Amino acid sequence: MGKMTGFLEYPRIENSTENINDRLKSFEDFHLSLNTEKRREQGARCMDCGSPFCQSGMTLNGSVIGCPLHNLIPEFNDEIYRGHMGNALSRLLKTNNFPEFTGRVCPALCEKACICGLNDAPVTVRENELYIIEKAFESGIIKPRIPKKRSGKNVAVIGSGPAGLTVADQLNHRGHLVTVFEKASRPGGLLMYGIPNMKLPKEIINRRIELMESEGVKFVTGADIGRTVPAEDVENEFDAVVLCCGAREPRKLEAEGIENAEGVVFAVDFLTEVTKDLLSGKLPYHSSDMSGFNLDEPEKRQMSESEKIVRNKDVLIVGGGDTAVDCVATVLRLGAKSVHQIIRKPPLPKERTADNPWPEYPKVWTQDYGQKEAADVFGSDPRIFGTVIKKINVDENGNIKSVMTSPSKSKDDGEMKELNCGLLLLATGFSGCENYVPESFGIETDNKGNVKTDENSFVTTDNKVFVSGDMRSGQSLVVKAMEEGRKCAAEVDKFLMGYSTM
Fold this sequence. Notes:
Layout lengths: L5 H4 L6 E2 L2 H4 L7 E2 L3 H9 L13 E3 L2 E3 L7 H10 L2 H9 L5 H7 L3 H4 L12 H15 L14 E5 L3 H13 L2 E6 L7 H4 L8 H13 L3 E4 L9 H7 L2 E4 L20 E3 H13 L25 H4 L5 E5 L3 H12 L4 E5 L26 H10 L4 E2 L2 E8 L5 E8 L9 E4 L2 E4 L9 H6 L23 E3 L2 H4 L4 H20 L5
Parallel strand pairs: 5-6, 5-8, 6-7, 8-17, 9-16, 10-11, 10-16, 11-12
Antiparallel strand pairs: 1-2, 3-4, 13-14, 14-15
Helix pairs in contact: 3-4, 4-5, 4-8, 5-8, 6-8, 9-19, 13-15, 15-16
């Protein structure tokens, strides 16, 4: 696919980014797109390899490799190269409901499996994908696709994160009447509140929600099923219920003194509050909004609550995943005095080892955007590898003032070091879903805190209630949640109709 010799003629060129000093002044998206000519060259780099591992979505040595959605990657790359954007969009939307999300936040598992990357740089699959969908919106190709016939079946989807939106989109286009319930004031779930704006602009989410509404999906916000809305009422009103509430039960940090220390915050809660401040106008959404937000002189304006807990403080972030990186980038924009990222595991090697051959996921040292920003501001990478926090020290008012750390493999307290800390953000993952939702529906959870289903099934112990995404599988990626959503929707469709064409 693409140009037969394209991978020999054109080097990999990624989207550029704004200068770090400039982009730290607001929460605006800082990625800059290639022009059409350069993007067609990137599409041309897709080899006629004959074995597209990029779309395999298989598991090797415990890690997923290739696209879990099985996107038709060589085909849409070929259409980009040839300038057939309508065809490129058609191929992309056959497998991916929301390329505007995955094109921004997916870790590009497809690129890790690209055969071109075996001896050279892989194809820019994720950015090619994003180019297709954004050009489609820009040119007006994307229009509401309203089902010509309705089945008369009503489905309730609880939760509007990536899994919930995918289930709703699939079932709506099948002809079912779908209502999405969201406990927050805005739909989007993790996409809206758990991912910073500079990584996933909120107008992109709103654009998709508005499109889905125009296609017939109904969104009900401020509806916390199991608390403000009885689960029994929902189950009685709808023909099927799909739970897509995520894995929101945070994993706690075991450290002496942490229970009573002020200034210890779970990372997703922190990111949620920052996004709320941003959407309410208390923080600069765009660089053009900066006139009333002199970040260097906060005393001349009223600071938001999220800024108050960060500004001029030594911030420690515990965790090595995407959420921790997002926290690093966020606190930099809120005026942290310093920032360090505490990671239990030792640093990865700079290059692949014999134990980690292609096409396994490359377990190598990299710098994500937040770490690059911190290194630019403070002169060094913020990560402290192979380290755990043992004890929290507080001042006379109970506020955290420092932590005691030690090497993660050490049992000798004599090796402990003290690090100043005015804010401790815990990005240590999640231990399952919040219990009140499954309990309100009378369904069972497993020993990992996930809703129980049979293997390769999405139906719960109540045959009218289904579950999808992190709530079923545990904490994972946006693209995996979307894969779950598509599979779950097909099972719900079969339950409603007796068969499925999905």
